[in-house]
Design a protein that fits this description.
The complex is a heterodimer of chains A (152) and B (487).
Chain A lengths: L1 E2 L4 H26 L5 H31 L1 E4 L3 E6 L3 E8 L3 E7 L2 H5 L2 E8 L2 E9 H19 L1
Antiparallel strand pairs in A: 1-2, 2-3, 3-4, 5-6, 6-7
Chain B lengths: L4 E2 L3 H25 L11 H24 L1 E4 L3 E6 L5 E6 L3 E8 L1 H5 L2 E8 L8 E6 H13 L4 H9 L3 E4 L2 H10 L2 H19 L2 H16 L3 H31 L3 E5 L2 E6 L4 E7 L3 E8 L1 H5 L2 E8 L10 E8 L2 H8 L11 E2 L5 H22 L10 H14 L1 E4 L3 E7 L3 E7 L3 E9 H5 L2 E8 L6 E9 H20 L1
Antiparallel strand pairs in B: 1-2, 2-3, 3-4, 5-6, 5-11, 6-7, 8-9, 9-10, 10-11, 12-13, 12-18, 13-14, 15-16, 16-17, 17-18, 19-20, 20-21
Helix pairs in contact in B: 1-2, 6-9, 7-9, 12-13
The chains are: A alpha+beta (152), B alpha+beta (487).
Chain lengths: 152, 487
């Protein structure tokens, strides 16, 4: 089984920062515009700050374990994915059922030369986040080739 | 050369009706906004009538043109449809792409012997690709051509000489179904809600009068009598909701008939709205046997199939058998869907999973109960239900199971009613094994199978199974794929 790029830790942490940022903005806006004259308003604002804090901790601690747990592999018959920290998910996608494979690259992950790969089946999509670009492109090509061979 | 055929003339009426329905509000708004601004010199009061008349004439002319331009033809490969007044659309639909063809007709349409034919492909559009009004014979002819288009005509005739496998729902079955359905309870609550809202609806005077007359009559009535009245009232409401439920069910499913014809399953049902549905067996993704608690205890079941992109209600499952005796189950499978007919013995959840199962489910119940006990007066009586829930959990656990065959996977689980899902291996889009930290220690895992659906797939989940059973399943699956590929 193969691993995803080790940069993924950084990326997840960054994602976390962005998420925390958004929550913080909401909290700050609330605390500026809300008139604090009732108890529930204090509770609301405080709990949003608390959520921001928890998200921050979570998003900075978890990436390491997420990265450790994420495995993927492909062969002639199937794509297998294993991921999940608290509850492990073990996914098998038969090659025959793969419809198409997407890659996407946002501005941030482009900087680190990473790529996100999405495998589409008729029953939904599965993501392999943060692969090195050359590996990701090769994977996409490999899957496409295998799928094409099968359909012939 | 193609010979182009017009659709039924009834199309004109339905077009007129539809246009009027669509434009009635804008027109009314327009008229209101116009008001009486127009001076008498230019027609004054008659403007509005004039506008309406012009508008009606326009609609009628347009509808006639629309009908004139709406033509179709059938040839060996597909169906050709032409429509549109200002821009002409032409659409060709190869028969090989046809997914389903529905024939339906409303009460009015039936008086004029008109049937609506709706042809669907797998494409993502919500609307049917082709939807035209035809005479009855023509509609059935087109449907026949579509589904036998590519085949040899002689063969078809010989096959039709065979007896078609058929299953019908008797009126008695429908009565039973209506009686057992949850609709009764639903309509009960609706009536009850209405009853409690009556106070707001009634005008004050009437209320006062009712109040005084009730006060007068209640004076002589003892307490026990009032309780009696309430019981009678509840019974009365129940009976009414039962009648409503029966009427609804009978109207909807009257004359339910399932016929297996070669590669298609044909359904027809309905009293006022006659429905004709054709499901190609190839498109069936999974079959679910539903055994409701009440139904089950009387030995009844119903059967659903899940197809990809079927008809207008996409993503919904189709009931191919609303109700039937359990004895018929085997026969039904043999006759109608022999593809799914297998003997299976389910592998049950291992004993060691019971603890986790009970723990996870009971915690939720206990928390909910505690909340009720805390906030609802006399709420703590709810704990009386606890033993029932525990027994129920045992039942649920006992029903859990799965079977992993050569080309079929069977999953069984119970939420309220027991559902047995039969999925063809070919249709499985992905398999998942989910394990949390605690389950890993006990070598237990949850098993999730996803089949194709609209937008997102449909998943079936069986929890609390043995870890290794699932591992074995994985290996089997890949090897089977290998075999089928070699052919």
């Amino acid at each position: 089984m193969k691993r995803i790029s080790s940069f993924s830790k950084k990326m997840w942490a960054l994602d976390g920062f962005i998420g925390v940022g958004i929550i913080l903005i909401i909290a700050v806006v609330l605390s500026v515009f809300l008139e604090f004259n009732a108890l529930w308003k204090y509770i609301l604002t405080a709990s949003i700050y608390a959520v921001a804090l928890l998200t921050l901790i979570y998003s900075q601690v978890m990436p390491k374990y997420k990265y450790e747990k994420f495995r993927y592999d492909i062969d002639e018959e199937k794509i297998s994915l294993i991921f999940g920290v608290f509850s492990q998910r073990n996914v098998i996608i038969p090659m025959k059922r793969v419809q198409y494979v997407d890659t996407e690259q946002g501005i941030i992950i482009k900087r680190y030369n990473l790529i996100k790969l999405t495998i589409h089946t008729a029953g939904g999509a599965y993501k392999i986040p943060f692969l090195e670009k050359d590996i990701g492109d090769k994977l996409q090509l490999d899957i496409t080739n295998i799928v094409r061979d099968i359909s012939i | 050369m193609r010979e182009l055929i017009h659709t039924h003339k009834f199309t004109i009426f339905s077009e007129i009706f539809k246009s009027i329905k669509d434009s009635i509000f804008p027109i009314i708004l327009f008229l209101i906004s116009l008001g009486s601004k127009i001076p008498k010199k230019y027609g004054g009061n008659y403007t509005e009538i004039l506008i309406v008349i012009v508008f009606l004439i326009l609609i009628v002319v347009l509808s006639i043109f629309r009908w004139k331009k709406n033509e179709y033809s059938l040839n060996d490969e597909g169906m050709y449809l032409k429509y549109g007044v200002f821009e002409v659309h032409e659409r060709t639909l190869p028969f090989s792409q046809v997914h389903s063809a529905d024939i339906s007709s409303s009460l009015v349409q039936r008086i004029f012997n008109v049937y609506k034919l709706e042809i669907d492909t797998l494409g993502g559009d919500k609307k049917s690709e082709i939807s035209i009004l035809l005479s009855k014979q023509e509609a059935f002819r087109v449907k026949e051509v579509i589904f036998n288009g590519s085949k040899n005509k002689d063969k078809v005739e010989i096959k039709q000489g065979d007896k078609n496998h058929k299953y019908t729902c008797s009126l008695k079955d429908l009565f039973v179904m209506a009686t057992m359905s949850t609709k009764i309870i639903a309509s009960f609550f609706i009536i009850f809600a209405f009853y409690s809202k009556i106070e707001d609806i009634l005008p004050g005077k009437l209320k006062k009068w009712a109040q005084t007359s009730i006060d007068d009559s209640v004076k002589g009535v003892s307490r026990s009598d009032i309780i009696k009245y309430i019981v009678i009232l509840i019974l009365f409401v129940l009976v009414i909701s039962w009648i409503i439920s029966v009427i609804i069910t009978v109207i909807k499913y009257y004359g339910f008939e399932v016929i297996r014809q070669e590669d298609n399953i044909k359904l027809s049902y309905g009293l006022l709205d006659k429905k004709e549905v054709t499901i190609p067996v190839k498109r069936i993704q999974s079959v679910t046997i539903v055994e409701g608690i009440i139904k089950k205890s009387f030995g009844y079941f119903s059967l659903n199939v899940e197809t990809i992109g079927y008809g207008k209600d996409k993503g919904e499952s189709t009931m191919i058998c609303p109700i039937a005796r359990e004895k018929i189950l085997n026969k039904f499978f043999e006759d109608i869907i022999p593809e799914m007919n297998i003997k299976y013995d389910l592998t049950k959840s291992p004993k060691r999973a019971l603890k986790g199962f009970l723990l996870v489910n009971l915690i939720g119940y206990i928390v909910a109960m505690a909340l009720i006990a805390r906030f609802v007066p006399y709420g703590y009586y709810i704990f009386i239900l606890l033993p029932i829930i525990v027994i129920w959990q045992y039942v649920q656990f006992g029903d859990n199971g799965m079977y992993n065959g050569e080309d079929l996977v069977v999953l069984r689980y119970r939420k309220l009613s027991r559902e047995t899902v039969i999925v063809q291996r070919e249709c499985v889009q992905s398999m998942e094994k989910v394990q949390n930290v605690f389950q890993k220690k006990r070598a237990i895992a949850k098993y999730k199978i996803t089949i194709a659906g609209e937008i997102v797939g449909k998943s079936y989940v069986v929890g609390h199974m043995d870890e290794n059973y699932i591992n074995k399943n994985y290996i089997d699956m890949s090897s089977i794929n290998n075999i089928s590929r070699n052919y």
